[in-house]
Design brief:
heterodimer; A: mainly beta; 4-stranded antiparallel β-sheet; B: mainly beta; 5-stranded antiparallel β-sheet; 11 strands; globular
Chain lengths: ~120, ~110
């Protein structure tokens, strides 16, 4: 049973550039959530996708956008990168639109460094 | 404002003894709580959960206790093993909405 996969594992960009991160959910899951984990912090919720729509959004600017494909995989796009965007980006999958008391399963993350 | 707090950044325990990791939250509407374990260079791994209708949930060596009146939960690991050394995050949500995570507690189990 394939777990959550993410690509790439590491990425280096410069300020002002744009980046796209990818996530494939755990087999059978239809909901994808994205988190940003800065050094020494817990994961911070960015947004969640279900049925190809953004279902919930955390306190992140519009520079952060996403997409979910019909096969439930997802992309996270960040425009106009800032140094402060350097972090581990985690994707988590769950079932049923992240409904009541659904557990989220995490991928290994993509470590982004902005220079 | 941090809605979920883990006030102990680190904890060291002898192998075979009990590890107790604590977590406090401020939002009384949270009704589902989880613990995740994270090794370096890996994503968080789900460990155990508890619904607000319960005050205890047990899974093998891991037990989570929930005290709603104190807005406090704890994770007990008995007996602790060296392989339990990792960072532990607690997380909380309201009605399946976004999860809020604590900042983590780094557990070291000394052989």
């Amino acid at each position: 049973d394939a777990g959550v996969t993410q690509s790439p594992t590491h990425l280096i960009k410069t300020r002002g550039q744009q980046v796209t991160l990818r996530c494939s959910p755990k087999s059978g899951h239809d909901t994808v959530s994205w988190y940003q984990q800065a050094l020494g912090q817990g994961p911070q919720f960015i947004f969640q996708y279900y049925e190809e729509e953004e279902r919930q959004r955390g306190n992140f600017p519009d520079r952060f956008s996403g997409h979910q494909f019909p096969n439930y995989s997802s992309e996270l796009n960040v425009n106009a990168l800032l140094l402060g965007d350097s972090a581990l980006y985690l994707c988590a999958s769950s079932l049923g639109g992240g409904g009541y008391q659904e557990t989220q399963y995490f991928g290994p993350g993509t470590r982004l460094l902005v220079l | 404002d941090q809605q979920v707090k883990q006030n102990s950044p680190s904890l060291s325990v002898q192998e075979g003894r009990i590890s107790i990791l604590n977590c406090d939250y401020t939002n009384s509407m949270f009704d589902y709580f989880l613990w995740y374990k994270k090794y370096p260079a890996e994503g968080p791994t789900f460990l155990i959960s508890i619904s607000s209708i319960k005050d205890k949930n047990e899974d093998g060596r891991f037990t989570v206790f929930l005290n709603k009146s104190a807005k406090h939960l704890s994770l007990h690991i008995v007996p602790s093993q060296p392989g339990d050394s990792a960072v532990y995050f607690c997380a909380a949500s309201e009605a399946g909405n976004q999860f809020y995570f604590g900042t983590g507690t780094s557990l070291t189990v000394i052989p």
